[in-house]
Each structure stands twice: as C-alpha cells, then as structure tokens.
Design a protein that fits this description.
The protein is α/β, with parallel strands linked by helices. The chain is built from 15 helices and eight strands. Helices cover 56% and strands 13% of the residues. The protein has an eight-stranded parallel β-sheet with strand order 2-1-8-7-6-5-4-3.
Length: 330
C-alpha cells in the first residue's frame, strides 16, 4: 500500500517550467511520486527569466502589454500541466491539481481578486485547476466567493493558526454554498518560520528547527476541526536551506493523514532517495499549545514572527511579479 492509499497523503511538486513539463514531470506522475503541482509568481519569474523554452512564444507576444504577455506564457504552462495531470484527477478528485496564483498586487482587493480568479479559471477551462489566493482580509472574502462559484481554491501564505482558521471558515462556507464537490487546500508555510527564528532561539537556549513543524501541526489540528473532507492542509515552503537539517526534513516530519506536502523538485528527489516513507507521529494539540507557552515564557513573540513573514511573503511575490513584468517588455 502507498501513503496515498493508506492515509490520503499527497506529495505535490512546487515547480513549473516548460522543458520540465515535457520530461521529468511526466516521469514522476507516471511512477506515482507526485499527485499534483503548484506554482507561484516567484517560480514563474525564475522559469521565464532563465529558460530559453519561452523565447519563441515571448517573441510572438511582444506587441502586447506586460501582464498579457505574462498571462499567455503562464497559462500555456498551466494548461499543459492540467492536461498532464488530468487522468490522475479523474481517478482521484482530491488530487491531480495544478495551482495558479492571482496577481499578487491584488492581495488587498477582494473584488479584484474574485474577478481575476473567475477570469483565470475560465481561460484555463480545466476542472483540475486551483486558484491561489493569499490569506489576507481581502483574501478570505475572495476564497469564500470563489468556492461558492464552484472554483477550487488554494489558500496561500498561511503562517499563523489564526490565518488557518479564517481560511478554513471561508472555504467551508463557500464549498457548502456551492453545493458542488469543490476542493480546497490551506497552504501552511513551514521552513520560513525556522529560518527567521532559529538564530534568536539559539540565543535563548531553545531547540532550533522545531517551530515550523509544530506551528504547522497546530494549524493542521485547527483545519481538521471543521471536519470538511474537501479541505486539506497543505504544507508549503518545505525546502531546506543550509546543512543543519536533512534535505527532506520538512517532508519526513509532516506525513499526516488527509494532507498534502508541496515541495521543490530537489527536495522531492532527496526524499525519494533517503526520506521517510511512513506516517509521522502527530504531536497532540495540547503538546503544541504547551510549546507555544514555553516560547512565551522565553520571551518569544510568535505573533511578530507571523506578521513579518506574511508581510515579507506578500512583498516578495509582488517584487517577483513586478520584476518579471519589467523584463517581459525590455
């Protein structure tokens, strides 16, 4: 039996690039290594900027404005990924998804996000596409509205349990209102917490490499309280930077029932070679809460960590998007 069959655990690939789609991507779908894929503005900025595979289409689109050029390039890849994942999706409605993010500059514009989500979903025209919406106040409104309209949603840039709860509430309401079999994932970012906090933790005598996993586990418990089988926690930002942790650390330690891990291609390759292939023991919610009490006793303000990471994450996607748009018309 596989982890998918045993506990409904899925591994998605957090990478999209045109040559990759025609080669390795198809191999890891065929051998059932992955069950889906995700993208974001930073991934597209890197792919389009660094791969010659986009040159011919880019040359043909030069008469258009930058955002139109970007969308044509990105949607070509998303449509291809959706087609390659379609058989998987038809066999298992929970999986076979590809995600595309709305314009990150719309993160505080609920109506703009809704309109763009509807438009992108319509342009792609595939049932196995998730529209990615950041977990801001405007984003919660958009998530609910998009799912109520029958659109699958990937709620992204979740760092805090409070964000996870608000996403779950919005998605739960929207899915129930739709009266359709709409799927959603709540993307809880993991490794970024440790990268930000570990140096401070070291100075306070706290164990490093723990906050990300425990925080993600707390979010997982909160999402599960909604008891909506169409909403799964997705663990994102699961690549390791540096040599302090095993390369597949954030995959090995978050293999939970009814969850997804979206990992960079290199992390997936490391997990295939040396990673853990069995369910992780899940820390209880009580133990998670006790850990946060310990942090508070040590003077760690976790809310400040959440706030900085969300601000930095939103800003990083905006910068990547603006940088890409600038390159496309130069």
């Amino acid at each position: 039996m596989s982890l998918k069959e045993d506990i409904n655990y899925s591994l998605w690939c957090d990478f999209i690039e045109r040559d990759f789609l025609e080669n390795r991507f198809q191999e890891i779908i065929a051998d059932q290594t992955i069950q889906g894929a995700t993208s974001n503005p930073a991934i597209f900025e890197s792919a389009i900027s660094n791969s010659v595979a986009y040159k011919q289409q880019l040359d043909m689109l030069q008469a258009n404005n930058a955002k139109t050029i970007y969308e044509e390039l990105a949607l070509t890849d998303i449509k291809r990924a959706a087609a390659l994942l379609d058989d998987l999706h038809k066999n298992d409605a929970d999986d076979g998804f590809i995600s595309i993010e709305v314009d990150p500059l719309l993160c505080d514009d609920a109506q703009g996000t809704i309109e763009e989500g509807v438009r992108l979903n319509s342009l792609i025209g595939s049932d196995n596409v998730m529209i990615k919406v950041p977990a801001t106040q405007a984003g919660y409104i958009a998530m609910r509205e998009l799912t109520s309209k029958g659109i699958h949603v990937n709620a992204t840039l979740i760092f805090s349990p409070e964000q996870a709860i608000k996403c779950a509430q919005a998605l739960d309401e929207g899915i129930k209102e739709s009266n359709k079999d709409i799927k959603a994932v709540i993307s809880v970012f993991v490794s970024r917490l440790d990268r930000l906090a570990d140096s401070d933790f070291l100075s306070k005598g706290l164990e490093t490499g723990k906050l990300g996993i425990i925080n993600a586990t707390k979010c997982y418990h909160e999402v599960n309280k909604f008891e909506n089988k169409n909403i799964r926690t997705l663990f994102a930002s699961t690549g390791v930077k540096g040599n302090e942790l095993a390369p597949s650390y954030y995959v090995d330690n978050l293999i939970y029932p009814n969850s997804v891990n979206t990992a960079p291609l290199g992390t997936i390759e490391d997990w295939l070679q040396d990673g853990v292939k069995e369910q992780t023991e899940i820390m209880s919610e009580t133990a998670c809460d006790e850990y946060f009490e310990l942090l508070a006793d040590k003077g760690v303000k976790v809310e400040n960590i959440y706030e900085k990471l969300l601000t930095d994450g939103l800003d990083a996607f905006k910068v990547s998007f603006k940088d890409l748009l600038a390159k496309l018309i130069n």
